[in-house]
Amino acid sequence: MTASLHPTVAAVTARIEERSAALRAEHLARWAHAREELGAQRTRGRLSCTNLAHGFAAAGADRPELAGLEWPNLAIVSAYNDMLSAHQPLARFPGLLKLAAREVGATAQFAGGVPAMCDGVTQGRPGMELSLLSRDVIAMATAIALSHEMFDATLALGVCDKIVPGLVIGALAYGHLPTVFVPAGPMTSGLPNDEKARIRQRYAQGQVSRAELLEAESAAYHGPGTCTFYGTANSNQMLMELMGLHLPGSAFVNPNTPLRDALTAQAARQAGKLAQQRAPGIGPMLDARSFVNAVVGLLATGGSTNHTLHLVAMARAAGLRLLWDDFAALSAVTPLLARIYPNGAADVNHFHAAGGMGLLTRELLGAGLLHADVQTICGRGLAAYCEEPYLAEDGQLAWRPAPAQSADPEVLRGIDEPFAASGGLRLLEGNLGRAVIKVSAVAAERHCIEAPAMVFEDQQALIAAFEAGHMDRDLVAVVRGQGPRANGMPELHKLTPQLGVLQDRGFRVALVTDGRMSGASGKVPAAIHVTPEVADGGPLGRVRDGDVLRVDATRGQLEALVPAEQWAAREVAAVPPSPAGFGREMFAALRAANNGAEAGAACLFDDGPEEGAREAPRGAVESRA
């Protein structure tokens, strides 16, 4: 099943371990000290009688076990709310988890809720400026939930974009505790994603009414569960499996089904067993190999570009320095094995039916692209993740080998017949800074766009220019002042229909921004996360209307073709302060403390801006006429 490790995978892993040695040692020592302080007792055994009595005052039938200090106690940390379709199913989970925990001699308490906002609801609205920052708030809220020292393991309940990374970062603050992630699953398939995108583009051109648009959107997003396209939320679920934090094969089982309920209950049993065994916590478990596996999975499936931020921040919380250079090196040797919207017509339910995570994991292991010997919550390395769950005839949960071949090679393929020889993520560099670009859904003839710039200071200005008919030409749209320190780095997915329309009209179009695009964006080439951002004096602020820009994913170039002397003499455009209102003023301190996109766009660590974000300082790429 497994092959010798690919030399590039081995080399990247070694580089991460080398550059992270001191930081990782510091984190391991911290977690080891926390375990040593506990000794053989339960965590709550260190509390005074007064403290402990507060901790189980309302525990009902669990009071004797909590007072007795023998049974481990599990923390349930949940992102439940009933506005988000992805998190609405979590309402039922605490009851299932508590009952299942008792089956293995453990108790469970709902330790705390974390905020969960939906980028789909806030797209293009002021709330989107809080979205990325909410990841760090979720991490802090997770730490608060665990701060009561009542718990011996954690059950983390979350699905969507910032929620899972925030839960991981927060859990790593208590890295001595074993942690099991409990997913909710995707909604069943509705209106096909490509049809939804077509209607959005028609609406952008005034060809369908708002009522028709809403009807289409409602047919696409129609019930409980994660949105079915392969954006950040579903990329999260893939990552949790390859990082060994899920039960095998649990990512894409639909909610409110017998199999999903069985997996949810088993997650509590597994967490209880890990606590009983005093198994290693999530901190020691997630090492450099775990994060390399995660990056390879992201690349092999054409996953969300948002993880060039989130995985970097998650790794930093584990005491590891993961770089964009690592993504680029791994992308060069990782084949694309999945076509899921926006990289294809299928949704995640089709991917799951074709063989899903079990088949994908087996194929990547067989090619030596994954570390097989990582620690997981199952204790069997990644071999366990080549299996899929099912309910046996007696109704009991069981696992069996994933299918030997894909049931739909237009959705999921084996290693010998990939959709592309390399992953869909590239690193761009030049006199405009550094950026990432996702090309797995971009036609090959559009991997290099060279065209005059059209500069916008916000996305509303671009939409207004499109509606006025000013953009019917070849262009590189520059939307700047959208970085984490400027306004929180909102997603600019709302621009996808307009840019897609221009491309469909035959124009050569690209986007360059220090902001983000959605994990669901794809067919228009977009150089995103440009760093340094304009608010930090980044060179994107020197671009003027009409400058010819080159976005070249093939050669990794991001350049303004302006004479070097003229370029150097220009001032960087000022970025207006983030406006007050809609809660944005409350996040000013988090924006100011942000360490920049390439370092994970985080505000929780004591690194300086972009510190440790590159292998070595790089000289600026010279401008040329």
What features would you describe in this structure?
The protein has 625 residues and is of the alpha/beta class. The chain folds into 3 domains: 7-188 and 223-401, Response regulator (Rossmann fold), CATH 3.40.50; 189-222, no CATH class; 425-599, IlvD/EDD C-terminal domain-like (Glucose Oxidase, domain 1). The protein is built from 23 helices and 14 strands. Strands 7-8-12-11-10-9-13-14 form an 8-stranded mixed beta sheet. β5 and β6 (397-401) form a beta hairpin. α5 crosses α12 (258-276). The chain is globular.
Distance N to C terminus? 53 Å
Number of helices, where a helix is a run of at least 4 consecutive DSSP H or I residues? 23
What is the level 1 CATH name of the largest domain? Alpha Beta
CATH homologous superfamily identity of the largest domain: Response regulator
* DSSP, total strands: 14
